Structure formats: structure tokens, C-alpha cells
Amino acid sequence: MGLSYEGCNFLRQRLVLSTLSGKRVRIKNIRSKEDDPGLRDFEASFIRLLDKVTNGSRIEINQTGTVLSYQPGLLYGGSIEHDCNPQRSIGYYLEALLMLAPFMKMALKATLRGVTNDPNDPTIDLLKTTAVPLMKRFGIDGEGFDLRVVKRGMAPGGGGEVVLSCPIRRTLKPVQLTEQAKIKRIRGVAYSVRVSPQMANRIVESTRAVLNQFIPDIYIYTDHMKGANSGKSPGFGLTLVAETQNGCFLGAEMSSTPQGQGDPILPEDLGRNCAKLLLEEIYRGGCVDSSNQSLALLLMTLGQQDVSKVLLGPLSAYTIEFLRHVRDFFQVMFKIEVQKPLEDERKGGDKVLMTCVGVGYSNINKTIK
């Protein structure tokens, strides 16, 4: 008997966990009260992507799109291409794909096309600089692990292209990330497409004005893509990543307002605001930043039958819901300890130490040599 849920929220979480655990899932009342009921185009596109990476999935959607039932197949992988819906950025699809990629039958090489940077979803640059090193901690590494931007495409037009290649792993290592270390360096990428290349330099200047007060080791690359590689819409943005002494990465980012969707933002303000977002993220602290909390918790759950511990900043609402779903699909409960730093420690906000024993998930496709 599968699990049953209501509503359109957390669709990705439910489908990803269903695919990994092999449990059937049925979601009803998807926007049933709205004028335009049912699944949105970007969700349908996500379901099609899941269909491409699995083998034998059964997906049934009723006439109005308000009920979805999903019987997961085996994760197959291999070489796939997918045109993502421009309503959401590629980051929306990639976040879920990163959760599934290590457990495929064949190493995954996915080419995704669409919007690479928009204000709502994590951009590719952020995933590359925070999610990828986090996965390496769990033993998902090797030559073949790579995420690269071939073409940038800003919202709303898109036209970007991203290639993810990820090796497969039989099992994951348990991790102990319990130390909150000091920040040793800040790196970043200021990108601009179809606007003056000077925009990126203006972003860098205003960002450095804020961050230079705290740390000297700051290097922000400027990335200006031209011609065919610049997508269809103009825009600019910034991704910042702070690296701690024990090799944890905390990231923050901002993108310019998409063309024709509200008040435009000055590059100077964008740089300043993004620097403040990074400082906020560092204040929240922990070993994993707020956008990757659920990825870390999933990899802990799927680890070997051994104890994993990770120190996080305050849990986001998305992460809390993710923990409930992990309990439903894998019957794993986390031990949650709140740690309040002392006044004089200067360690930022309250921290949460998450502890769990992995379910000993092993990739059934990977034959034993």
C-alpha cells in the first residue's frame, strides 16, 4: 500500500523519496480549489524528467491534473537530455536530480536546457559550489563528478544549458560534521549576459566594500558570456561562497529582476544585498547552508547502518517538512539537539545537531564484482 498526500506543495520531495524507497505515492487535491486547477507545466516537466531517468515508472494523472499517482521504477540513468520549463530554473530540476544521481544503474550524464539563473530557485553556480562539495563528503566523488554551465540563460527567456555528470556509488559513507569552524576565504562569481560587461565589475566593487571589513581573502570572478552562449534574456547576478577552515561551504546568491517583471535592481544594490545575505548565512552557520539542508539529511538517511551527525543552522520550513517525509518513506527519525552558543563565543545564531542512523541503503543496480 502506497502513501497518500494532499496538495501541490513539496511535490519534488515526495516523488524523489518515493523513487528512492520504491514506495508508491498518490497525491490528490493538487490546486483543486483554484481557477486553473491541477499540475503546472513545470511540475509536469519534472515528472517527465523523472520518467526519463527511471525504467518502468507508472505515472497516472487524472483529466484535470488534480490527482497524481506514481509507481516508481528502477533508477536507470545513462545519457539524457531534457528541456526544462522556463517557469522555474534548471536548479529546481537539478536539486532533485542530485539526490537521485548516485543511485542509478548507469552513471548519469544529463544535459538540461532552460533558465540557469532566476531569483526563486538555487542557481547552477550555487549548486556547483555548495551541493557538489557536500556530496563529496559522503563519498560521491571521482573524476566523473562535474556540473558545468555551457550556456547561461536568464529568466524569463531561458536558453541556457547545463551538463551534470555524476558517478554511481554502491553505498554512502557516514559523516561527522559537528564543528563550526571559522571562515577562511570567500569566493564568488558575478555573471552578466546581454548587458554591459561593466555590470559585473560594479557588482564586485560594491560586494567587496561590505566584505572587506571582515576578511581579506576575497576573490570574485566576473563571467560575461557573449553571443550564442548568453541565452535569450538580459540579466546579471552574483553567487558568493564562504569556505570554512574545515572545508564546509556556505553560499548566498542574488539575481537581477527578470525583464518585464517588476522594478529593476541596480548592480550596486545587488552586490550589497548579496553580501549581507552571505553574512546572514554565516551567522546562521552550521556545516551546511540553508539551501542544502535537505540534501545533507537525505544522504545521512541513506548512509550505511552507522551514526551520522551534522551540525546545521536553524532549520528552514522546507527542511522540517522534508524530515516528516523521510519519516514516512524510510521510517528514520533524527535526534535533534539545539545548541545555543555562549554570548562571548561569537558563533552566530542557535545551531541544531542532527543525528541519525542510516538505513543501509545500497544501490541494487550496482553488481558486486
Automatic annotation (TrEMBL):
Principal location: nucleus
Pfam family, one: RTC_insert
GO cellular component: a single term: nucleolus
Residues annotated as domain RNA 3'-terminal phosphate cyclase insert: 179-282
Subcellular location: Nucleus, Nucleolus
Domain of life: Eukaryota
Gene Ontology molecular function: any one: RNA endonuclease activity
Segments forming domain RNA 3'-terminal phosphate cyclase: 5-336
Keyword match Glycosyltransferase: no
UniProt KW keywords: Nucleus, Ribosome biogenesis
Biological process terms in GO annotation: endonucleolytic cleavage of tricistronic rRNA transcript (SSU-rRNA, 5.8S rRNA, LSU-rRNA); ribosomal small subunit biogenesis
Job of this protein: As part of the small subunit (SSU) processome, it plays a role in 40S-ribosomal-subunit biogenesis in the early pre-rRNA processing steps at sites A0, A1 and A2 that are required for proper maturation of the 18S RNA. Activates BMS1 by promoting GDP/GTP exchange. Does not have cyclase activity.
Subunit structure: Part of the small subunit (SSU) processome, composed of more than 70 proteins and the RNA chaperone small nucleolar RNA (snoRNA) U3. Interacts with BMS1.
Family: Belongs to the RNA 3'-terminal cyclase family. Type 2 subfamily.
Annotated protein name in UniProt: RNA 3'-terminal phosphate cyclase-like protein
Organism in which the protein naturally occurs: Oryzias sinensis
